[in-house]
Amino acid sequence: MARCPCSVFVRGLPLALACSIGLAREPAPIDPRLLAIPQADGRIDALIELRAKAPSTLLDPAAEPPARRRAWVQALQATAAAAQAALVAWLEAHGVEHQPFWIANAVRVRADRATLEAIAARDEVASVQADFPVTARLPGPAAAAATGARGLEWGIERVRAPAAWAAGIRGAGVVVGGADTGYQWDHPALRAAYRGWNGTTVVHDHNWHDGVASAIGGAPGPCGVASPVPCDDHGHGTHTMGTMVGDDGGTNQIGVAPDAHWVACRNMDQGNGRPSTYIACTQWFLAPTDLAGNDPDPDRAPDIVNNSWGCPPVEDCVPPDILRESVENAVAGGLFFVVAAGNSGPACQTIDAPPAIYATSFVVGGSNEAGRMYGGSSRGPVPGLAVVKPDLIAPAESVRSSVPGGGYTWMTGTSMAAPHVAGVAALMLSVNPGLRGHPDRIAAILRATAVPLTTTSQVCGGIASTTFPNPVQGFGEVDAWAAVRLADTVFADGFETAR
After folding, report:
1. pTM of the full predicted structure?
2. Sheet holding 44-50, edge to edge
3. Superkingdom of the source (predicted)?
4. What stretch of H or E contains 243?
5. CA separation (Å) from 93 to 84, 277, 472?
6. Where are the domains positioned within the chain?
7. Would you name the residues annotated as active-site residues?
8. DSSP label at 389?
9. Chain segment 162-176, per-residue pLDDT in tens
């Protein structure tokens, strides 16, 4: 019998997987880096991309966001289950370690090169990509700092969050998510906001996931793998979460939306990730599971996800389309996906690492306390991208926030800028819950209310520094109070036309 690729057809919900008979095709392409590994080197980490896709265009745009997300998750899961069934059975029969995904139709495997070549010959396979370890270029603690706690940190004041607080808008009723190096859930500035804590007992099911399923680049770090409790073996994740929601009830007012709740996923081991760990966390946010990976529940998804990580080309990260597909499918499911621009500036065209290079990501560059651009903030334009990135900028230099062990320190980078914007988005949803599940509307309001910096004349991509958006600062610096006031006036028909 002639071989043929398979396709999935969705009508509201997936109903059938059909395969029409055609001519035999050539084996799926294999990442050249995998073919360069000698056969004798043993098991190789790879991502298998399958051909079948669930089209988001068939989702009902008039449906309420929770119902639309449930339908979308069901479509993605059914598509993956049908398309992967034969491959997974083959992997199990041959004793191949594997991890299936549905947010992008893909399977992570650990196998020798001969097995990867056999997989590539299968009809349902579109490509075989490397899943190599990636060392993220994460900011660390500041070498020295001039002052201690100021009660209210400069970045919080700069984005005008206190004006929203004075109006009683502090993020209540909103859930933010963080994908990072992990988190100290019981840090004094974070414990009260953790969704798994009720003031007496803690439940990590559906509130925490460790996307590090196997060792990355050697032996596991202090958190191990698949940690059943929130753990941070670097400090970066705990710091970013503090900027979103942190408040110890005393002098450490470090978070933009202190009354919001948070959930989290670890996608890096001691700062080292890989495409599969990034995909694992993105999938979990769209439908959080219990600690065993069961009971995926899209109704428990966070409203906003902060992503202060990158998959940099300097670390030989050549991300497969699977990574882009996972981000696009998360946004199609209603998640507002906030992403750090990166720290490769000040040269133009330095936004070069996923997920900041994706059109569906809301990309944040950095500013400083003097009201200027943070020099290290990556700039656009992004080659091949029709839209301008970054979308806007936020405080990035010498940002003080929480770190593991119950303490606080300063860090610098766009990793610090992105959570300021995630926190502002939480304030917006708190004043107008109708924005929940509508990332385009949230983005439009943030862009419309940003305040352009007049302190830079840098030109990138031939766009004048006085034209907005531009590839240096996007639409300008985020303004929480202006965004909250505009969000409060937006009706259900949306605000997609703004700026």
Report:
1. 0.93
2. 97-101, 106-111, 44-50, 125-130
3. Bacteria
4. helix 236-245
5. 14, 25, 53
6. 7-131, 151-487
7. 180, 236, 415
8. S
9. 999 999 999 999 999
